[in-house]
User: What shape does this take?
Amino acid sequence: MMVKTALLFFLTAIAEIVGCFLPWLWLKKGVTIWVLIPAALSLMAFVWLLTLHPAASGRVYAAYGGVYVMTALLWLRVVDGVRLSHWDWLGALVAFCGMLIIVAGWGKA
Assistant: This one.
């Protein structure tokens, strides 16, 4: 369950980041306004993906935050081309471990 949950969270984070990155491109880089259509679709997918988890919404959001941090830093490295520091990697690891702890407790509270 832990691997499935983590993968679903990563997919969810990609959907959210793409949904936010495309309008950013439109506002900051002057790309066509038509990017708002796939951005909206991506954000709809993001919301739908969050509903696929069996836990209460607050727990899902809290756990998702840990994966989002890691995914956003990977996006920073791959898409933006920014070299990550050891502090970035450590922070991502701590956030990801937080997600693992929260998910491990699902159904036990």
In short: Residues 2-29 form the longest helix (28 residues). The chain is about 75% helix and 0% strand. Residues 73 and 88 are 7 Å apart (CA to CA).
